[in-house]
Amino acid sequence: MLAAALTLAGCAGQPASDSVEGMRIDAATVATPESSRRSAYEYHVLAGEMAIQRGHRDVAAREYVAALDYSNDRELAERATQIALFAGEAELAYRAAGTWAAAEPDSLDAQRTAARLALATGDASGLAVYARSLVAAASSTRTGYQLLADLLSGENDRADLAIDTLTDIAQRHPESAPAQHALGVVALRYGREQVASQAAERAVRLEPAWDGAVLLQAGVLIRAGETDRAQALISGLPGNDARRAQYHLTLARLMVQADQGEAALDAFDRALALAPDNADARYGLGVLALSVGDLERAATAFRRLYEDGDRADDAAYYLGSIAERNDDPARAQQWYQRVENGSHAFESQVRAARMIWAQGDMAGARARLASLRETYPEMTDQLYAAEGQLLFEANRPADALAVYDAGLAAAPESLELRYGRSLAYERLGRIDAAKADLQAVLDAEPDDARALNALGYLLANHSQRYDVARNYIEQALASDPDNPAILDSMGWVEYRMGHLDTARDYLERAYADYPDPEVAAHLGEVLWKQGEREAARRIWQDARADNPNHPILRETVERLDSQGNAP
User: Fold this and answer.
1) CA 332 → CA 92, 304, 318, 445, distances in Å?
2) Contact between 500 and 531 (Cβ < 8 Å)
3) Helix 466-479 to helix 449-462 angle, to the nearest 10 degrees?
4) For residues 444 and 438, what is the distance between their CA atoms, to the nearest angstrom?
5) Of the CATH numbers 1.25.40.10, 1.10.10.10, 3.30.420.40, 3.90.180.10, which one belongs to the domain with range 208-310?
6) CA 382, 383, 387, 393 torsion: positive or negative?
C-alpha cells in the first residue's frame, strides 16, 4: 500500500487544492476515483500521506477513511483509525474502526477501539455489537467483561447508554456471573445503587465464592453507609493472610471513594494487621490520615515506608509536608531534599527552597531557586514564579517585580509570571500595569478563575466600577464556588457596595476555610462597621499574632486607628 503511494508521489502536481491546503494531486497524471477502484484507493492513500507530511491531520483522516470505500484491508483500516483518532475526528475514527473490527474479529484491540468509539459517538446498536465482540475476543469471559466494564465507565454523559447496554447483555446471559458483575460495577460507578445492588445479588447467587462478586456487594453496602456489613462480608472470604489483606485494602479504597474516611482508616488497619509488609496499604493509610488531619498517624506510616525503602521518595515528600504543617521548616527542608525521583521530585525541591526562606534566609532560598533553574531548565517559568511569590509574601514587591520581569524575558508566553507580576504591580500602586497583565491573561485564557477574581478585586479596590468588578468575581465564583480567595473578593466588593450583611456572609465563609490575614482584615472591617467591635478586635488580634507586618492587615488597623476607632 505504502509502496504504491510512494510510487505515485512523483506525480504530485503544483500547490493549491481544495483537498489539502498548499498541495494538489495532478489529476492528469494520477488516477482519480472515477478510473478504477485500485486507482481511487491509491489516490486517497497518497493524499492522506501528503497531508500527514504537511501537518493537516483532519485532511489525512478524511483521505484515509475515504480509501476504505475501495478496500477493507486490515492494516489500512487500523491506520485510518489511528490517524482519525490523532486528528480528534471521532466520527471518522468510528467508521474506520468498524472496518477494522470486521476485518479482524479476533483482535481485542480492534473490538475494544470500536466499542469505545461507539460509546463516544452514542451509537447504541453499534455498542451492543462491539461490546459482545470485545468479550468474545478476550482471553476469558471474565476478563472480557472486566475490560468492558472499565471501558464503559468514566463517561458521565454516556451513563444511560453504558448501563442500558450492559443491562441488555445481562438479561441475555442471566446465568453469567461476570455479565451481572460488569453491570453492577458500572452502575455503582455511575451512582445507580439500585441497579448495582440487584446485579451484585445475582452475581453472588450465581458464584457465591467469587471474591469479585462479594467485593461488588460490599461496595454497594458501603455506598449505602452499611460499612459494618461490608466488613463482615469481606471477613468471610477465604484465603491466606496476604489475600485477605488485599480484600480489606480494596474495601478501604471503596470507602475512600464513598467519602467514609474513618471507616477506610479502619479497613487499612485491618489490611496491615494481616500483612504488615503491604506497602500499598501503609501508603493508603498515610495519605488518608494526612487528608483528615491525623498528622501523627500519617507520620508513623510514612516513616515506616521510608525506613523499609518502599516508595521512599513519596514517603519523604509527605514527611516534609507534615513537618511543614507542624511549623518545623528545618525538618521539612531535610525531608524535601531527600526526594530525588518520582512525581514529587520537582515540587519537593521548590518547597525546600521555601523552607529555607521560612527559616529567615531569603538569600539562601533565592540561590537555591537559581540553581534549580539550571537543573530544570524546562521549568524556568515556574521557578521564577516561585521566587517572585516568596518576595511578594515578604512584602518586597519591587524585588518581586524585577524577578517577574526577568522571568518573562526568559519565558514571554508564561501566564503564571504575568499573573504574578500583576500582583506586584498592584502592591506598588501601578494599577494600569496590573490591569494590563491581568487582561493579557484573560485574553489567552478567558475562563481563568484566578485572573477573573484578581481583576474584579483590583477594580473593587481601585475604582468605583463595582458592578463590573462584581461581574468578574461572579464569573470566577461560578468556576470555583468554594474557593476562599474568591469568596473573600465577593465579600469585599459587596462591602464596597454597602451590602454589609451579604458581605459578612461571604467573608465568614472564606475565613472559616482560610483564616488568612487579608481575609481577617476584611471580615474585621465589616464587623466593625456593623458595630461588633469586640468580634473585630478578636479577629484582628489573632491575625496579627502570626502576621504582625502584613500590609493590608496593618493598613486596615492603622486607617481605623487614625479615626480613633481601632483597638
Assistant:
1) 53, 17, 9, 35
2) no
3) 160
4) 10
5) 1.25.40.10
6) positive
Contact 184/203 with Cβ under 8 angstroms?
yes
**85 residue type, one letter:** L
Q: What is the distance between the alpha carbons of residues 7 and 435, in angstroms, rounded to a whole number?
A: 59
Question: What is d(CA 153, CA 189) in angstroms, rounded to the nearest whole number?
Answer: 7
d(CA 533, CA 51): 72
**pLDDT tens profile 341-392:** 999 999 999 999 999 999 999 999 999 999 999 999 999 999 999 999 999 9
| Interval 328-352: pLDDT, tens | 999 999 999 999 999 999 999 999 9
User: 120 exposed, middle or buried (CB, 10 Å; 0-12, 13-18, 19+)?
Assistant: middle
Nearest to 282 by CA among 295, 292, 260, 297: 297
Considering only CA atoms, give the Rg of the chain. 31
Q: How many CB atoms lie within 10 A of CB 337?
A: 18
Nearest-CA neighbor of 81 among 47, 43, 112, 38? Answer: 112
**Residue owning grid cell 445507580:** 192
What's the distance, CA 274 to chain centroid?
A: 34
Give the bridge partners for 20, in sequence order.
23
DSSP state of 505: H
CB 350 within 8 A of CB 339: no
Distance between CA atoms of residues 262 and 281, nearest Å: 15
Q: What share of the chain is helix, strand, coil (3-state, %, to 5)?
A: 75, 0, 25
Cell of 174: 442471566
| pTM score above 0.85 | no
Task: Please list the alpha-helical segments (H only) found in 428-499.
Answer: 431-444, 449-462, 466-479, 484-496
According to DSSP, the residues that pair with 23 across neighbouring strands are: 20
